[in-house]
Amino acid sequence: MDSHVSSERASEVRLAGPKLAATRATALLSEPKDPGMNASNQATSVDVVIVGAGFAGLYQLYRARKAGLTARVIEAGEDVGGTWYWNRYPGARCDVESLDYSFSFDKELEQEWTWSERYATQPEILRYIKHVAERFDLARDIQFRTRVTRAVFDEQRKRWTVGTDAGESFDAQFCVLATGCLSIAQAPDFKGLSSFAGKWYHSADWPKEGVDFTGKRVGVIGTGSSGVQMIPLIAEQAGQLTVFQRTANFSVPAQNESLDEEAVRHAKAHYGERRASARESSNGLYLEANDKSALEVSEDERLREFEFRWKGAGGGFRMLRAFNDLLLNETANEYAADFVRSKIRAIVREPKVAELLCPKKDLRFGTKRLCVDSGYYETFNRPNVTLVDVKAAPIEEVTPRGLRTTEGEHELDVLVFATGFDAMTGALRAIDIRGIGGQSLRERWAHGPRTYLGISCAGFPNMFIIAGPGSPSVLSNVVHSIEEHVDWVTRLIQHARKRNADRIEAEAEAENDWVHHVNEVADRTLYPRGNSWYVGANIPGKPRVFMPYVGGVPAYRRILKEVAESGYRGFVLS
Ligand code: NA7
After folding, report:
1. Per-residue pLDDT reduced to its tens digit, 416-457
2. Sign, CA torsion 551/554/555/561
3. pTM for the model
4. 3-state class of 217 per DSSP?
5. Is residue 223 within 6 Å of ligand 1 at its C-beta?
6. Rounded to the nearest 10 degrees, what angle do helices 271-279 and 261-269 cross at?
7. Is 221 close to ligand 1, i.e. is its CB under 6 Å away?
């Protein structure tokens, strides 16, 4: 297969599609090379093993050290960054504003780092993460190019044995899974892919040296956030770009701009207030919310509000907060959906193409992650861009010359998969995790993830998940949620140590109640109705469960605080 993707072992496991999940990933899990021993025949012993060196793993390492714990981070990539290490496709940016999508734990760090744009690009975010790692001297406790394949809890010793694909073993009292919500890409499972004469790439495993599309015939499959971000830039370079769209999603303009000196000075002078205000909002973002119902205002006022948020300072997710019931009420939601459709029709000159780009009625606005773009719809006015509806005419196979749908063959030199991730649970299920009595986390989660507070699992003592399923995670400013989880977990460990307890476990009843609460809150919203990765709908065979906690950042923080103040209700410390 002539692609960089096929050449890297680490990459293969990150691409968990039906084929790879059944072959390579399983093979790696079942063929540990002498599990349990390092070269010296000794398992490396630490207080905490942390899996992953993205935002979560780095901050957990920092906090563990501060708490006097020895820690080792194990990371599959060659460097720090996690999601931001792998996702290097053209146009990759965060859809949360840079001033918010950054650590708040160190005021000097906050003041010394200067973001250049409202929405940071992937290279800038990666530079920031590297800066954090250097500033706090984190790399000396990180082992790169190593993938954790197995973690087994020893009940007698109350410790975890964590095994890697290199056959090494770590012995730790605590295992913190900082594996990220979007780290296992959905592998392209198209018939005939190995026969393709051109090159193919996945958005989440982009070559470091970049890809030159100049003059090429390029096909992009997928129109979620990754596709929507890369399509305008590839179109500028490619000779011909064909976009294969299965489901039209909603996209709103980022209104990105560079941050001038005055904007930066002002933001830094008021950083504390900005963070505090963000933390009081449902998604932990610094975006003005309108606390009116879309049903209580006149049509004029409604359109003015939507228009303001489409064009107004900041764009992006501000649209989700135009009214307080957009994700609660079908009619309110339809108003927002209609507004975006009207914009698409106004931007895209060819009416047939515009209609194809308009999300259908069965996709409620915002229930699938809203895309935040720069010039996405405008790109379809370019003469070198074609939109192909692969819902009406599904993809049959990849051929040596390109891609065949039921309506014919499209000749291509390069094929790009922007087909998304096995989100939220993929990276956790990729590790063979064994708790009490050897029970497997994969089996326990066969019908969907089960956690207490999105942090802990009954039957898996001394194991913690950062921004896991059942917590606000992807519905919040995830950097804020990471800091909150890491602080909370570290305090819990310190609390247990003070009481000479060396085993911390969530009670089954507390977990049951939390799972029930997560579902109950989600069912009050329109979210579970969207066929999105939030419910696992993009992965064939994945159980349909709404995974994040939608109760809001402030409510969740209050719950965490109450649990801690009650002496960690729902946990057994022994
Ligand atoms: P997404 O949002 O899951 O988008 C994946 C896209 O790929 C979506 O349009 C899918 O269509 C499409 N897709 C997936 N498989 C196929 C097949 N087999 N055929 C045709 N089209 C397919 O992933 P992204 O990487 O864009 O974004 C993930 C998150 O990263 C994003 O939400 C941000 O939080 C950052 P579908 O909609 O399933 O019909």
Report:
1. 999 999 999 999 999 999 999 999 999 999 999 999 999 999
2. positive
3. 0.94
4. strand
5. yes
6. 70
7. yes
